[in-house]
Every structure is written in structure tokens, then in C-alpha cells.
Amino acid sequence: MFVGTCALSLAFSLITGSAAAISLDTTSQDSIKSVSKVLASSVVAFYDETLKEDLVPGLFPEPFYWWEAGLAFNTLIEYYGLTNDSQFNARISQALQHQLGELAAFMPQNQTSTLGNSDQSFWGLASLSAHEVQLSAPASGSWLEYAQNVFDVQAARWNTESCDGGLKWQIFTFNAGYNYKDSESNGQFFLLAARLADLTGNATYAEWANKVYTWTNDIGLVSNFHVYDGTDDTKNCSQINHIQWTSRHAEFTEGAALMYKFSNAAKNWTDIVTGFANSSSIFQGDNGALTEKACERNSRCDIDQRAFKAIATRSFARAALAAPIVADSLHAILTASAKGAAENCNDSSEGVACSLAWSTSSNDDSEQKSAADGNLGEVLNALSAIQALLWPNASFPNATVGSTGTTNNATTSGNSSGSTGAPESRGSGSTLAASITLVLAIAFATALSC
Ligand SMILES: *[C@@H]1O[C@H](CO)[C@@H](O)[C@H](O)[C@H]1NC(C)=O
Ligand SMILES: *[C@@H]1O[C@H](CO)[C@@H](O)[C@H](O)[C@H]1NC(C)=O
Ligand SMILES: *[C@@H]1O[C@H](CO)[C@@H](O)[C@H](O)[C@H]1NC(C)=O
Ligand SMILES: *[C@@H]1O[C@H](CO)[C@@H](O)[C@H](O)[C@H]1NC(C)=O
Ligand SMILES: *[C@@H]1O[C@H](CO)[C@@H](O)[C@H](O)[C@H]1NC(C)=O
Ligand SMILES: *[C@@H]1O[C@H](CO)[C@@H](O)[C@H](O)[C@H]1NC(C)=O
Ligand SMILES: *[C@@H]1O[C@H](CO)[C@@H](O)[C@H](O)[C@H]1NC(C)=O
Ligand SMILES: *[C@@H]1O[C@H](CO)[C@@H](O)[C@H](O)[C@H]1NC(C)=O
Ligand SMILES: *[C@@H]1O[C@H](CO)[C@@H](O)[C@H](O)[C@H]1NC(C)=O
Ligand SMILES: *[C@@H]1O[C@H](CO)[C@@H](O)[C@H](O)[C@H]1NC(C)=O
Ligand SMILES: CC(=O)N[C@H]1CO[C@H](CO)[C@@H](O)[C@@H]1O
User: Fold this and answer.
1) Could you tell me how far CA 397 lies from the centroid of its own chain?
2) Across the chain, how many H-helices and E-strands are there?
3) For residues 270 and 325, is the Cβ–Cβ distance under 8 A?
4) Can you give the pTM of this predicted structure?
5) Is residue 232 classed as helix, strand or coil in its secondary structure?
6) What atom in ligand 2 is closest to the CA of residue 86?
């Protein structure tokens, strides 16, 4: 039922030529930073607006799912790390702490209906970024510890009852998608393991990264450096849904790059990371920029899919940093994407607005809209793509640790660097957020039926 249902429109229509652009000089750090600032500010303005309307810290309103808030905060954390503009840090810290949940592992009980393994790991990866940029320490515990908690609970969920392993997409039996083993949950678990291995030097994480990667290949979720959507575990994972997404491809590329680094360029990881970098070209439009080809060419990307390029550009930038052997080809994609993104955003007195398509070979004809008007994903995509150009000069994550096993001292960087970490009073009821929890996770329903 998952295979072959995607009616691909081969119709070709040009993007309307009238859209305004944001001017960006991809060779100037100042230009990249100032455009990033405009985009980040517009995301935070939307967040502030909704927070004021009685939202609990850490959420964006419907139709944006909980996972996308995790992505948004991760992007803003990286914005700080890449630009040193700390003006949003207090709000970011508060948001993460508020969504931590009872187990300190980003599983708030009131998000149960939208909480799959992949949703959880978006927040876990954000917490790891907070650790890397040394965001002021939370009120208790540490950003690293929270990410490790996500890893630990997911490792405990590794499911050998079907398909010889793998994470199920959903955590709870009552959520639709419980029988689906998907490349996003498994890819992000792989990536979390690889990032933790790189940051802590702990070999247990590297062993898991090897194990998860090997399983995804054995089962066919990853094949010949292409990453496919997922598979039904009631059919022994024998049928694969072959839709491919930019985000998952890039996350596997990043995980492979980190394992290449961790293993000191072992032959197998060298082949794997170059293989992924090579096959990344399937997502490039005719100007070299990323396209979400599974849905962009027929204008059918849903609210989730419209944020995938934010994930992809971040992971490609991090991969280039970890594995210099693939940096040139990934930077070519990133530079074209940043240019394409700027060309498809506009900054007027009403604020900044972006559309999805970055390439003239994309058929997506959606309009430039602001985050508040429904294009949060598009604005995050542009922010992530443009600030990605700053990664080669980033002072994080620190490359001083790896296979040597020493611990990155950022781990213990204290709570002394400011008072921004304290969460506001908790538990203030919110009817809007309560209604969000009623929305059943259909995050990938469109992907399945395309
Ligand atoms: C620019 O963005 C605004 C919204 O901020 C929008 O109303 C306007 O149509 C956009 N301009 C173009 C040329 O797309
Ligand atoms: C980052 O910003 C802080 C002030 O917020 C400043 O003290 C520090 O020097 C800046 N660091 C760099 C590398 O620019
Ligand atoms: C949901 O749970 C989190 C974590 O326990 C809490 O911070 C938040 O206030 C709760 N309420 C809503 C409506 O999100
Ligand atoms: C902050 O660090 C100090 C010294 O390292 C410690 O005594 C204190 O408990 C910490 N505070 C919090 C809120 O973690
Ligand atoms: C390495 O990580 C694993 C998994 O979290 C943990 O059980 C183990 O104690 C860690 N080992 C060291 C030496 O920190
Ligand atoms: C790569 O090679 C190492 C050393 O032989 C091995 O331990 C690891 O499992 C391999 N990983 C993969 C994904 O093939
Ligand atoms: C299920 O798939 C696994 C892995 O491909 C294989 O080892 C096993 O034999 C299969 N079991 C059945 C009942 O088909
Ligand atoms: C990647 O592409 C380069 C150049 O096209 C080629 O030499 C190399 O063998 C490819 N690597 C893999 C692993 O496919
Ligand atoms: C950024 O890094 C590149 C090389 O990686 C270097 O040439 C350039 O001067 C750096 N720019 C800044 C502003 O540090
Ligand atoms: C980490 O901090 C400890 C204690 O302050 C110090 O002995 C050690 O050398 C540091 N390690 C690194 C990699 O900086
Ligand atoms: C957060 C942190 O420790 N940053 C350091 C990472 O390494 C670079 C270069 O070694 C330093 O300049 C940063 O201060």
C-alpha cells in the first residue's frame, strides 16, 4: 500500500517571475549574518506573538506540530552559535526546558498524541546543539544529559520483535504509524548516536551508530546511498516505501561524516560518506539548489515537508565540517541553496516572507508568505540554508574530541554565564495548547499516500 501511489506530475511550469528577492552576498560574512538576523527575527517575532496569546513556552500554533518547534529552536540555537547574536537565547532556553517532560527526555505527557521517536529526537538534537554552543545551563541537569536521555530511552526501544531490529516510528501503540519503521526515526537515532560519539568520545555511541546504520541497510531503508521513507513491520519489512526526502538523506550523510571522523577515516565510513555525498545530487534543481523533489514538482508538500530543507541544509553543513573530503560537493549545494533561498524571500515593511521553491526547475508555485501567515517551514529553510554558509568558520562543535575518548569540557561549562536559563513558572493552563494535543499525528500521512 505504500509503494507506487505517488502520482508524479511531469507538467512543467515556471515559477512566476514577479517575486521579490532579498539581496545576499554569499562571499560576505556580514551579508550572511545580516540576512540571517532578519530571518531569525521573523521566526522569533511569530513565536513571541503566539506566546503572548496564551501559548506554553516552546510551541508554535496549529498547524505546526510539536516536532517543528524542536526544529525551529535548534535552528535558532545554531543561529546563535554561528553569529554570536545572543538576543534570543533566554527564550530558547526557556522553551527547551518547558518541553522537557517528566523523564527529562523531551516526552511531555501532554504531547503524547504527536510524539513519535522522530519527533522526540528533533528536540534531543536541539538540546545537543545547546550543549555545543554552550547555551547557559538549565536549572537542573545539563543540555548534554537531556540529549543522552533521549538516546537512552530510544536505545531501550530498539525493537527486535520484527525485522531483526529498528525503531518504530511511533512510541505508543495507539498512535497511527506504530507498525511503521521509518528512516527518520532510525536516521535521527543514528545521527544522535554519531554526534554523541563525536562529542563525548564514548565508544558505546559509536557501536550503536554502526548497528543502526547496518540495520537500515540490511532491511533496505538505505540502499546504494539512497534513503527511503519506511516499511511496514507487520510484513517483516519486506516492502519499502521508496519516497526520498532531502532531510533524511542529509541526516544520514551527517551521521556518516561524523563516523568517518570518529573512525579516523576508516575505509567503510569513507566509502559511505562519499557515497551519500555523491547521491545528494538527486535533490539538486537546475541551478544546483535543493528541491524537495518528492512533492515540490507537483506542489504537494504538506506542512511538515515544507520544513525539510531546513533539516537538510543544517546536516549538509555539519557533514562538510566533519568530513572535509566531501566538503566541496556539499558546499556547492549549500551555496546554490542559500542563493536560491534569498532569491525566493522578500523583506518588506510587512516583514520577511519566503516561498518553498529555490530552483527554476521546481514546479512549486506557492507564494512568498511570512512565518505568521503559514510559511514557518519556508522561513526556517531559508534561515538554515543561509546561515549554513557560516559553518566553515564556526567555533562549535569543537573538533578537539573524537576517538581519543576525552570529554569535551563544554559538558561542564557552568551556569555562570548568565541568568537566562531559568524557566518561567510552569503549569499555567492553556486551552490552545490543549487543543493542539488533540490533533492526531498525521505528520507523514501525505508521504504515505503522496
Ligand atoms: C512580499 O511579502 C509580502 C508579505 O510580507 C507580500 O504581501 C508581498 O506580496 C511580497 N511581495 C512579492 C513581490 O512577492
Ligand atoms: C560574542 O558576543 C559577546 C557579547 O555578547 C562578546 O563579548 C564576544 O566577544 C563575542 N565573541 C565573538 C567571537 O565575537
Ligand atoms: C505540558 O507539559 C509540559 C511538560 O510537563 C509543561 O511544561 C506544560 O506546561 C504542559 N501544558 C501544556 C498545555 O503544554
Ligand atoms: C551553578 O553552579 C554552581 C557551582 O558550579 C552550583 O553550586 C550551583 O548549584 C549551580 N546552579 C544550578 C542552578 O545548577
Ligand atoms: C557511555 O555511554 C553509555 C550509554 O549512554 C553509558 O551507559 C556508559 O556509562 C558510558 N560510558 C562512559 C565511560 O561514560
Ligand atoms: C566499519 O568497520 C568497522 C571496523 O571494521 C566495523 O566495526 C563497523 O561495524 C563497520 N561499520 C559499518 C557501518 O559497516
Ligand atoms: C524477516 O526478515 C529478516 C531480515 O530480513 C529475515 O532474517 C527473516 O528470515 C525474515 N523472516 C520471515 C518470517 O520472513
Ligand atoms: C563518488 O563520485 C566520484 C566522482 O564521480 C567517484 O570517483 C567515486 O567513486 C564516487 N564514490 C562513491 C562511493 O560512489
Ligand atoms: C572563514 O574561514 C575561511 C576558511 O575556512 C577563511 O578563509 C576566512 O577568512 C574565515 N572568515 C572569517 C571571517 O573568519
Ligand atoms: C577538561 O577539564 C579538566 C578539568 O578542568 C582538565 O583537566 C582537562 O584537561 C580538560 N580537558 C580538555 C580536553 O580541555
Ligand atoms: C565552545 C568552545 O569551547 N569553543 C572553542 C572551540 O575551539 C575553538 C578553536 O579551537 C575555540 O576558539 C573556541 O573557543
Assistant:
1) 16
2) 15, 7
3) yes
4) 0.83
5) strand
6) 5
